[in-house]
Write a structure and sequence with these properties.
198 residues, mainly alpha, Serine Threonine Protein Phosphatase 5, Tetratricopeptide repeat, 81% helix
Length: 198
């Protein structure tokens, strides 16, 4: 009798713990569907996993990735904002980084800069985030420079004198060409129309 009871214990434990394993199956199945590009299926599996209430930060991060892949910026940002509060530093970092990338793509450079900066506070050694942070800063500076008021350029008297000289030379060349053309048309008997074209 005791022997049968010892054999049944693993099966009883397996049945008791099945409810928690369902979320793992949903998340792994969602990850697999996502890796195959089946974003709608992945979305449904992650939503199913989110209803179980276990590991909400992981599920929110994955949902953010799916929404991003589906081109839905607002829900993706919302899910990444939610998962960025995770106690798991990898999830928080990845959420902030992805949020920064999406904000950058939306030309919201100041917000992207803040998100990348917050991600670097979690993982200061990440090179890709540092590069993206600097690129954000560059875009912000370029935007600020393009907004500056237009300053009137003062005219340089030397430039004006050169321009006047160039016009005189051009006038001289035109007169010489016209005289040459007149001489050629007089010899060949061409009409006065050629002279007027010049």
């Amino acid at each position: 009798m005791e022997k049968r009871f010892l054999i049944l214990i693993p099966f009883i434990l397996l049945l008791v713990s099945c409810s928690d394993q369902g979320i793992y199956i949903d998340i792994f199945s969602g990850n697999y569907a996502y890796s195959r590009g089946e974003y709608q299926d992945a979305n449904l599996l992650y939503i199913k996993a989110s209803h179980r209430g276990i590991y909400p930060d992981y599920v929110a991060y994955n949902l953010g990735n799916v929404y991003y892949s589906l081109g839905e910026a607002a829900p993706a940002l919302g899910k990444w904002e939610e998962s960025s509060l995770s106690k798991n530093s990898d999830v928080a970092f990845s959420s902030l980084y992805n949020k920064g990338v999406l904000l950058f793509e939306l030309s919201r450079y100041e917000e992207a800069f803040a998100s990348f900066k917050e991600a670097l506070e979690i993982n200061p050694s990440d090179i890709a985030t540092k590069i993206d942070l600097e690129y954000c800063l560059l875009k912000m500076n370029l935007r600020n420079e393009s907004v500056k008021p237009v300053v009137e350029v003062k005219k340089n008297p030397a430039d004006e004198a050169r321009k006047a000289d160039a016009m005189r030379v051009l006038d001289f060349v035109k007169r010489i060409e016209k005289q040459t053309l007149k001489a050629e048309t007089a010899e060949s008997g061409s009409t006065e129309e050629l002279l007027n074209d010049w």
